Amino acid sequence: MRSEFHIHTLYCDGKNTCEEIVLKALEKGFDAIGFSGHSYTDFDKSYCMSRKNTALYVNDVRELKNKYKDKIRIYCGIEQDIFAPEQNFGPDYIIGSVHYVLKDGIYIPVDESREKLVASVKEYYGGDFYAFADDYFGEVGNVAKITDCDIIGHFDLVSKFNEGYVLFDENDSRYVSLWHDALDELIKAGRIFEVNTGAISRGYRSTPYPREEMLRYIAEKNGTVTITSDCHNAEKLGFAYEEAFELIKRTGTEYVDFAQILASKNI
Ligand SMILES: [Zn+2]
Ligand SMILES: [Zn+2]
Predict the structure, then answer these.
(1) Which domains does the chain have, with CATH numbers?
(2) Could you give the count of Cα atoms lying within 13 Å of 6 in the half-sphere of its Cβ?
């Protein structure tokens, strides 16, 4: 099965309409796709779906589901931020994500830009990235509980701007123990981790989230993964899937076909 379940459109910060994505998926031979618009957050409207757009999005995807039902399976999901209000439209599935660290009442964006991140860590953590990562992974460890997600979004997003370890050392034992704790929590909750190639397609990283050592740890603890490209542009649908599969094979992680999971639940 060829599928993609992490897709953003013009309703939030993606570049295409839902139908353009469907047509590209058909052209690329996909069997199933799921849209996962960013959940509305009232403290930051720059990237998410407005309340109005959420309703339009749901209608649009449902119409497309029907229109293309003989050609491709289409699902209406959500990428639910831990600080977003719960959805009332009954999404087909949920990707649970942490995009902010809440510190002293301030929502610090984790993935907006390197400049913003460095300035915020300096201002709120005295420049200590390990203290920042501690709060980040503390939140990530709770993402299943808070969002009741099916898939854990970009587990180590905190390392987005850290290619070459320019901000902090990812092999430092302080950092490693933080992600161990968060992974233990989420594996215990039985959630699927996405191997997310989005930051590669946008030029931030050369490897997917989560990093290789994390995948080895997931394998060791019998956790499961699937693959997404966190698509914001139809041209990049399914980007670097082959590399992601290679990585999964190499680390011995168990891959699950999320399309099959939804089909088995009659969704
Ligand atoms: Zn995200
Ligand atoms: Zn996303």
Answers:
(1) 3-264 (3.20.20.140)
(2) 27
